[in-house]
Design a protein that fits this description.
By secondary structure, the chain is of the alpha+beta class. It has 13 helices and 17 strands. The chain has 4 domains: about 5-135, NusA, N-terminal domain (N Utilization Substance Protein A, Chain:P, domain 4, 2-Layer Sandwich), CATH 3.30.1480; about 145-205, Nucleic acid-binding proteins (OB fold (Dihydrolipoamide Acetyltransferase, E2P)); about 205-280, GMP Synthetase, Chain A, domain 3; about 285-364, K homology (KH) domain (GMP Synthetase, Chain A, domain 3). The longest helix is centred in the first third of the chain and has 29 residues, at about 105-135. The radius of gyration is 33 Å and the shape is elongated.
Length: about 375
């Protein structure tokens, strides 16, 4: 097969594939074709002579002991060491001899088979490339146009070269999309479904969507000066996030919120006016838990394994719990601790002063 390198380079450029990947695909396709034409029991090897730009097909024959019973079963795949030494005196048992098979003799049937094999494996190579591309973008924000919505209200969105799905469960409550809408979402996961198709699942309810939107709105997060350490959401209602600054001159919370809240409000608008609480992250669990329960003012926090016992003034309890328990749920999701609220005991009819963490909080 002459000028094969020109064909390979053309395929690689046209399909946007790596040259070496196309080379290996061509070799695999010719090996598969040879097995279909000459028989599945034989072993083949394909080489590309890049200097002459030609493709070469070899049949491999294994050198075995003179009394090996496989010699009688398949003489074309095995050769006795005695006969092999007549060809190459240095050959040993276990070595392989190769015989070149002229490609000109393959005929039309083989050419058609090779074309089908090549098309099939190039398509698989393209699919693998797409799979790896989107797998590496999990957690990243994407946008695309809605192409259809099925009877189960799953929304299908075209993003670049692939159609993605936004399941109903991954939509913010109350959202409805129509064909032609352009929407943002985050890539939640990428997998191969039962029909062997690549499926890219999107989400607008994941905390990662909140983080991805913040990265778009806050240059300091995109540049790595600020890190979103933790985030938690009850989609469409409320969210909490903890940020940390890696630069001494950058205020993590101030930069994230923006002047007059312009940055955080832009993200909130995309999330259907989701209320977003932003706080500074702390590596000290007690401080982090207390901040997570904001706007409640906490007196003390005691860690007991995966549980946090939080002491607070009775007047602060409703704030800590929040409407329908949303504040304490988010605080628990954000910190990873089960939170138990304990009211301060009263002494002589007067509540004790909430000063257990005063020194600790004031120091950070």
């Amino acid at each position: 097969m002459e000028r094969v390198m020109d064909i390979i380079e053309s395929i690689a450029n046209e399909k946007g594939l790596a040259l070496n990947d196309v080379k290996e695909t061509v070799k695999l396709s010719l090996n598969k074709t040879a097995k279909r034409i000459y028989g599945e029991t034989y072993e083949y090897e394909t080489q590309i002579d890049e200097k002459r730009k030609v493709l070469q097909l070899f049949q491999k024959v294994l050198v075995v002991p003179n009394d090996d019973e496989r010699l009688s079963d398949n003489e074309e795949s095995y050769i006795s060491v005695k006969e092999a030494k007549k060809i190459d005196p240095l050959v040993e048992i276990g070595d392989e001899l190769r015989y070149e098979l002229p490609l000109d003799n393959l005929g039309r049937t083989a050419a058609a088979t090779l074309q089908r094999e090549l098309e099939y494996h190039i398509q698989r190579l393209l699919e693998q490339q797409i799979f790896e591309k989107y797998k590496n973008r999990v957690g990243k924000c994407v946008h695309g146009m809605v192409t259809s919505v099925d009877k189960d209200e799953n929304t299908y969105i075209d993003i670049d070269e692939i159609r993605c799905v936004l399941p109903r469960k991954n939509r913010i409550k109350g959202e409805k999309f129509k064909v032609g809408n352009v929407i943002k979402s985050v890539i939640r996961k990428v997998f191969i479904d039962k029909s062997k198709r690549i499926t890219v699942e999107l989400s607008r309810t994941s905390p990662k969507f909140l983080e991805a939107l913040l990265e778009l709105e806050v240059p300091e997060i995109k540049d790595g000066a600020i890190i979103v350490q933790k985030s938690a959401r009850i989609p469409g209602d409320r969210a909490k996030l903890a940020v940390a600054s890696l630069h001494p001159n950058v205020d993590a919370v101030g930069a994230t919120v923006g002047t007059k809240g312009v940055r955080i409000n832009a993200v909130s608008k995309e999330l259907h006016n989701e209320n977003i609480d932003c706080m500074e992250y702390s590596t000290i669990p007690e401080i982090f838990i207390a901040r997570a329960l904001s706007p409640a003012v906490i007196s003390s926090v005691k860690i007991e394994n995966s549980k946090a016992v939080v002491t607070l003034n009775s007047e602060q309890k409703s704030k800590a719990i929040g409407k329908n328990g949303i504040n304490i749920r988010l605080a628990s999701m954000l910190t990873g601790y089960e939170i138990e609220l304990v009211e301060e005991k009263k002494e002589g009819g007067k509540a004790l002063e909430p000063n257990a963490l005063k020194m600790l909080f004031g120091g950070e």
